[in-house]
Amino acid sequence: MTACTTTRVVVADDQTVVREGIVMLLGLLPGIEVVGSAADGDEAVRLVAELAPDVVLMDLRMPRCDGVEATRRIRTDHPGTQVVVLTTYADDDSLFPALQAGARGYLTKDADGDEIVRAIDDVLSGDAGLSPKIQRRLLERIAEPAPSRPEPPAEPPDGLTAREVEVLRLVAGGQTNPEIARTLHVSTATVKTHINNLFAKAGLRDRAQAIHYAYRHGLAEPPGASAR
């Protein structure tokens, strides 16, 4: 950002001390104006609609609406606002859903003021604002061999939809309903609906039967099968 340009920022973090600390830090940085702060994702989305900031610094683990869902909603409804994740977590289950939801930057909370400014500059310039740690993880992930997946049948059995097959495959992989919701970027209620529908179509009573059904129809691979 140039000396004559002010970047308007909203900070979203559910921990009051952390949120106020970030706001205070940003207030000391040249060219940045904090125009609002939010304690959860719903409030962040509302503030973006109201204030049209340039950037949101977004925590991930928040009540009511987490950072991934808030990011998805902001990027869908307010594409002029960029999102930089600022979180404690750098694990794959946090990183990749956030990037898939539309975040263009990702920092951990040990980032200093210079790193935050650099990430904000990068996303406003159309680049990715990623910390060196996150860049390394992305490169490692790209270099990892893709896990083998069983080829699904040409037509899903029992009239299952493609989405129901996807949900069934995740069930067979041991994911809970909230985990499936995060993987697919949908609500837990939507996951429950898909599960109820596929159970009804396939005549299944419980998850154990669903897992056996997925193995039998080649929709998922039993643990250890790839090693044989």
UniProtKB/TrEMBL annotation:
It holds the Pfam family GerE. SUPFAM superfamilies: C-terminal effector domain of the bipartite response regulators (SSF46894), CheY-like (SSF52172). SMART domains: HTH_LUXR (SM00421), REC (SM00448). Residues 153-218 form the HTH luxR-type domain. Residues 8-124 form the Response regulatory domain. PROSITE patterns: HTH_LUXR_1, HTH_LUXR_2, RESPONSE_REGULATORY. The modification 4-aspartylphosphate is found at residue 59. Keywords: DNA-binding, Phosphoprotein, Transcription, Transcription regulation. It comes from the Bacteria. This is Response regulator transcription factor. It comes from Streptomyces yunnanensis.
